[in-house]
Amino acid sequence: MMILIKLLLAHFIGDFFLQPKKWVKEKEKKKIKSNKLYLHVLIHIILTSIFLWDASLWPIILTIGITHFIVDATKLLIQKKKTKRLLFFIDQLLHVLIIFICYYSFTESNFNLSYCITETNLLLVMCLLFLTIPTSIIMKTIFLKWNISELTKNNESLEDAGKYIGILERVLVFIFIIVGHWEAVGFLITAKSVFRFGDLKESKHRQLTEYILIGTLISFGIAIITGIIYLTLI
């Protein structure tokens, strides 16, 4: 496990601490012709070598270096303004996945899938998934009774911001409950109330206030009930 931690640490330092923004901009402009791309890969190879400090693990160092170049170069070649954010996460996911593959392929560690696929873990994944899109659809169906477009007329907002805020708050509430920190749920409700207070005060719209309160209570209520059910079943 120590080797895996060292590999991940080398990756995070190389990708986020030792890669200035001007390098990123130059790579995006010149793509594979940029010398910063090759310097970036070299830094990863050097960091991985230093952290491992074991000549017998050279296949890991070589594999990570080559694959890092392939992944980064491919991303630069196909990247567009609209896909930049998506490709960033795919890029990081591939790097981390390759590190795990190298760890289990070139060390004596064995990966046993049965340790991951347990009843408790599957239940946890199911609860987390339920609190994202399914709950958002359920709440949207509930609020079909009211015309939210009229309530929020002339009030600019980020696209789908409410949906993502709701998903994040439900996931956080669920996590706080299963780790036994109910006080954090109260803190989260208070924090949201403080941020929302200004909007409600400015709007002077009783229906919008009631809509927000109902939505918040339903969202937190579903997350709390899901957390309690999870704790009861395990």
Automatic annotation (TrEMBL):
Annotated transmembrane regions: 37-53, 59-78, 85-106, 122-143, 171-191, 211-233
Keywords from the named record: Membrane, Transmembrane, Transmembrane helix
Give the matching InterPro entries: Phage_phiKZ_Orf197
Q: So which domain of life are we looking at?
A: Bacteria
Determine if Lipid biosynthesis is one of this entry's keywords.
no
Q: Could you tell me what this protein is called?
A: DUF3307 domain-containing protein
Lineage, please?
Answer: Bacteria, Pseudomonadati, Bacteroidota, Flavobacteriia, Flavobacteriales
